[in-house]
Structures are given as C-alpha cells and as structure tokens.
Write a structure and sequence with these properties.
Number of strands: 22
Strand content: 15-25%
Helix content: 25-40%
Radius of gyration: 33 Å
Shape: elongated
Largest sheet: 9 strands, mixed
Structural class: alpha+beta
Strand order of the largest sheet: 1-6-5-4-7-3-2-8-9
C-alpha cells in the first residue's frame, strides 16, 4: 500500500451510533455471527461483479476466479476477510459504512426498548451486516477498490466503532474488498484456523463460491518459508440446485439468513425443481417476523434472480404479487436471458407463468403451515395478516385460496384474537345458516359491544368481528366463501333467512304495521338526518341503532377516505328502533312534538356514538341531554 492521501475524519449517522452500541451489547451472546454477516456481504459483492461483467468483461481484470478468503494472525490478533468482488469507491464506502440508507430506519429506532434481549430481536429483523464486526473487534480497517477503476483510486476506511471514522485514498492493486478486524483482547479465540473453519462450515457452507482458509503448513528449518497455500472449506455449490434429500434443515435455515440478512430461522420454506415447458429452481421462505418496511408498498422487495446459476438481480419483484412481498428466496431460471432487465420481466409471458406457479407454491406452503403448525401460523398471522388481506383484491385467481388463509376475531371467542378461519366458522354454523355474518368497526371493544349483535346473541349465531382498517375494503372484494355469501350485519335490511321462523317473520310484519304512526313522527322529527326510519329486527336490549344503506360506504371506509383527503359521497343512515324498549314506548306516548323531536335526536346521536361515529353537532347533543336531565330532576 502506498502513502494515504485525501485523508478525512467523518461522523457516523446517529442511527449507526445507536446500532453499534446495540451490536456490541445485545448480540454478544451470539458473537460468532460476525463472520457469517461479513461472508454474506462478500458473496453479494462477488455476485454483483459476476453480473456486471456479463456486459463489461473487462471488469474481471484477468482475475475471473471469484472467491472469498478468510485468514488470521495470532500474533497481531487479527482476522481478515478478502473478496475479489465488485469493490467500493470512496463515495460507496462513506455511504455504505457511515449511514443506514434503508427504508424503515426511523421505525426501527422508534421501536428500540433499551431491553437488550428484545432489542436483539429487532436488530435481527432490521439486518446489520457489516456492523456486526464490532461485536468482536475494537477497530476495523477496510481496504477496497471498485472494479474498473485505477489502482490509485483505492480507499481505506478505519473506525473504532465509536463516534467517527476515517477515510483515505490509497493505491490498491487488486479490485475488491479486504476487511481487517483487530480483535478485542477477550476475543482472541477467533484468531484460530480450527475455530474459523467450524464457523464457516456451520453458517456459510451453502455459499455458492469458494471460501478459502490458509492451509496448515510446517516450515523446514533453514529453508525459505513455503508460498501460502489455500484450501476451500465450504461446499461451494448453489444450495437450491441440490436435491432436497441432500439438504439438511440447518442448511436451509442458514441459507435463509444469508439471503434475507435475518438473524432468526424462517417459519417455513419450499424447495422445488420444475422441469418441462419451463425449467427453473425455486427456494421460497416465510420469515418469522415482519420487516419494518412491510407496509411501505414502494419499498424494495422480491426474490433473488439467477439465470443458469449466474446472479442477475436482487429483489426481482415480478415473480410474486405485492401482497406476498414478505416472501424471501431465490429463483433460478434456465429459460431467461442473462441480460434480462426489470422492464423485460414485466412483459415476459414466461414470467407470468412462473409468477402464477410460485404464487400457488407460497399459498400451498401457508396452507400446510396453518394445518400442521397452527401455533406457528398464529404467529405468522400476527405479523403478516394485514398484508394477506390485500390478496383478494390483487389476486382474483386465488381469491378462494387466500380467503381460506384469512383469520378473524369473532363472537365465539372473548380473547379478541384473530384466530377464526372461515372453514371453522362454517363448521360451527347453525343448521339452515347459509350466510357468513360479520361486523366492521374501529376497535374490538366497540364491535364486541355493538347493538347490531343483539339478535345474533339471542339466537346463538356467530359473527366475525373485523377491526383492521383494511377490513371493509377487503370485504368489498370477498363476496362469498365455499358458496356462502358474506353479510354485513350493520348494512341494509337484515334478513336471517331460515334462521327466522315463520312466526318470527309474521310477528315482525305485524309490529311494523302497528308502529306506522311512530315511524312517520320519527321521519318528520329527524328529517334530513336519515334516509329511512323503520322497526328493527336486530335489537333486543338497545332502543335504537343506525344501519347503513346497501350501496353506501361504511363508516370505516368513509373515515379512511376522509383522512386521505378524498371526497366522500353523501349518504344518510337508516334509523331503526326497538319497539319493545321502554324508551321507545315513552317516546310513542309523548304528546309534545317539541319534546318528541328533542328525544328523537338524543336517541339518534346515541345510536351514532354506539356505531363508533362522531357527532356532527356535539354541543347540540349535550344541550339536549342536559335539558332532559334537568327535567327529570325537577
């Protein structure tokens, strides 16, 4: 190396400082993962060079044998890792090693608790890569040169993992990156060939290029030291190309951690080789935890794409629909061109066929998880349920399959957990029940106690309780499941079909006829506030409720549209009253039309509040209520 020039000291991004502190303290119990993370990064760098060299072979600079080398120096207490991949220039080094340019960073920092055990899980979700070096090192030096740039544009990055780092320009003859870890005094165990070999075999055996360690050699006294020889210690073959019977679960798990940059094992995986009209290998994983950018639909996502085992693209999003954006994995095609681009992927009919097959593969994997490991699936649903609810709108072909994977809270379980499958709901349905009943709302407490459920409780009919903000939108795309239609119990004129006896129906008609006079008085009193007034068949305990028109937007959807600044079409609720309730009896007997009007508006506002709506004129409601209280106290 020549003398360093253009040397400067720069400060770490605030988030990096916090992350470094956590790395050193929270992950100390699993410190050997530093080597896995650095090897994973080196493998990515080699993949990127291999791909860029397809169109620019000069980038290989005569060194076409791509590899990673790990070495150590017991006397100097260092471990070094070197790759001959794409390398970095000065700007790359400052960007990649000084900041975290990753979506979800702010959410990640916000969720840190100060509890080391909990925070170590968050770090695993976020992915840390290079910074794991500071678990075992109190100083790290990085020497790098980007392929295609002159030797004089090498760069040296150095830091003790505290507040700042140094960057200088150097001469570097070879492309690629060399990382030197100056081990902490307590971590000398890693400056050992046997220890490093075991770590590489344990975590990185699946890496599809050679990882080399120095061969143990004995020097002969009086003779010059022999030239250093290297030996490959990993299998160095693409894991996804091997037969499933030859791959151990531990290998699948470590490969997932490599491609997903995750610390936790996946929930499930599916490894398949397709032959025939199309030929490709796929290895798909369901993560155990959601990434922080899961709900940012524009965030980078997708599978790693290889063509005939040559890496072509990270995050190729064309192979799975958006609602499955959490799936990690690899697809390796024999049918695509090596110079494929994102634009070509979007138009290629081969991709459409592969996307269809891979989507079904994922849904089958989730079905299997739900059937064989219900507790694991419960964890999956907690993390990814809201994203799965995007599925019926995006993937019409698999709507029934997706619906079978959905989970809901219901009146059959007081826990409020979303654990009820539609198939389970139908298995418990009452004899003669040909509908799936549901109710949407802002919170579990609100829907669980809704007056709309009163008749269902009385008859012992289960109702699904939907409280996610996406739920009403979801139900606009789910018309039926297993030939049973969905019915919103707060919408339209409730018809329980065969669940109502002929006697019930006859009694309802007679009551409606008997209360025609009250209906007309209420219409006159409530005026433009309602679209209709009618006798309710939903209520057993409450005096009144508001129902939604069959074609009108529900409250949940209206609130979402209003919050996003969109114009919401005008609609008025249907006022339904319980003819057997004492308040309605008193109202019916009220002679003063002014007092009748005041009491009617109080009942209307109470029904709106019970539905989770806000009052258009809260002051008027308070005034009317106070007036009534004064009258009662006199």
């Amino acid at each position: 190396m020549s003398v360093e020039t253009q040397k400067e000291t720069l400060g770490f991004q605030t988030e990096v400082k916090q992350l470094l502190h956590l790395m050193i303290h929270s992950l100390y119990s699993n410190k050997e993962i530093f080597l896995r993370e650095l090897i994973s990064n080196a493998s990515d760098a080699v993949d990127k060079l291999r791909f860029e060299a397809l169109s620019k072979p000069e980038l290989l600079e005569g060194g076409a044998e791509l590899k990673i080398r790990v070495s150590f120096d017991k006397d100097a207490q260092t471990v070094s890792l070197e790759d001959n991949g794409i390398g970095m220039n000065r700007d790359d080094v400052i960007t990649h090693l000084g900041t975290i340019a990753k979506s979800g960073t702010a959410d990640f920092m916000k969720n840190l608790t100060g509890d080391q055990k909990k925070d170590s899980h968050l770090i695993g979700q976020f992915g840390v890569g290079f910074y794991s070096a500071f678990i075992v090192a109190d100083k790290v030096d990085v020497y790098s040169r980007r392929a295609g740039t002159p030797a004089s544009e090498g760069v040296h990055w150095s830091s003790k993992g505290e507040g700042d780092f140094e960057v200088a320009t150097i001469d570097k003859a070879e492309r690629g990156t060399r990382i030197v870890l100056h081990l902490k005094a307590a971590e000398n165990e890693f400056a050992d060939g046997y220890r490093l070999r075991n770590i590489i075999k344990k975590y990185s055996d699946h890496i599809a290029l050679p990882i080399e360690l120095p061969k143990e050699q004995s020097a002969v006294e009086g003779e010059p030291a022999p030239e250093q020889e290297w030996e490959t210690v990993n299998r160095a073959s693409a894991l996804w190309t091997r037969p499933r019977t030859e791959v151990k679960d531990e290998e699948y798990q470590e490969f997932y951690k490599h491609i997903a940059h995750d610390f936790e094992n996946p929930l499930s995986w599916s490894h398949n080789k397709v032959e025939g009209k199309l030929e490709y290998n796929s290895l798909l994983y369901v993560p155990a935890r959601a990434p922080f950018d899961l709900y940012q639909r524009e965030a980078p996502r997708g599978l790693k794409l290889y063509v005939q085992r040559v890496f072509v693209m990270d995050q190729a999003e064309s192979f799975l629909p958006l609602y499955l954006r959490f799936i990690k994995g690899v697809v390796d095609s024999n049918d695509l061109s090596l110079n494929v681009s994102r634009e070509i992927l979007q138009k290629d009919p081969i991709i459409d066929s592969m996307k269809s097959a891979l989507t079904k593969r994922v849904l089958d994997m989730l079905e299997k998880l739900a059937k064989n490991q219900p507790e694991q699936y419960k964890g999956f649903w907690k993390n990814f349920g809201q994203v799965m609810k995007e599925g019926p709108a995006e993937d019409f072909a698999n709507k029934e399959k997706i619906a079978g994977l959905l989970r809901f809270a219901s009146t059959s379980d007081d826990s409020g957990e979303q654990s009820v499958a539609l198939a389970d709901y139908l298995a418990r349905a009452k004899e003669g029940q040909d509908k799936i009943y549901y109710l949407t709302g802002e919170s579990y407490a609100q829907v669980k106690n809704s007056p709309h459920l009163e008749v269902f409780r009385k008859k012992g009919i289960e109702v699904l309780l939907l409280t996610d903000r996406i739920d009403e939108w979801l139900m606009s795309y789910l018309s039926d499941f297993d030939s049973k239609g969905f019915v919103d119990v707060a919408r339209g004129d409730l018809d329980l079909g065969k669940l109502d006896s002929e006697e019930d129906k006859k009694a309802q008609e007679e009551v409606a006829k008997d209360k025609e006079g009250l209906i007309e008085r209420l219409k006159a009193a409530l005026g433009d506030a309602v679209s209709e007034v009618r006798v309710s068949h939903r209520l057993t305990d409450s005096p009144a409720i508001l129902a939604i028109g069959e074609q009108d937007l529900g409250l949940q959807m209206r609130q979402i549209l209003e919050a996003s600044g969109q114009k919401v079409p005008d609609s008025k609720p249907i006022f339904e009253f319980n003819p057997t309730h004492p308040l309605i009896g008193k109202l019916d007997n009220e002679q003063s039309e002014d007092r009748f009007s005041e009491l009617s508006h109080i009942l209307f506002d109470q029904a709106a509040l019970a539905a989770g709506d806000s009052l258009k004129d809260p002051a008027a409601y308070v005034r009317r209520l106070n007036k009534l209280l004064v009258e009662l106290s006199v």
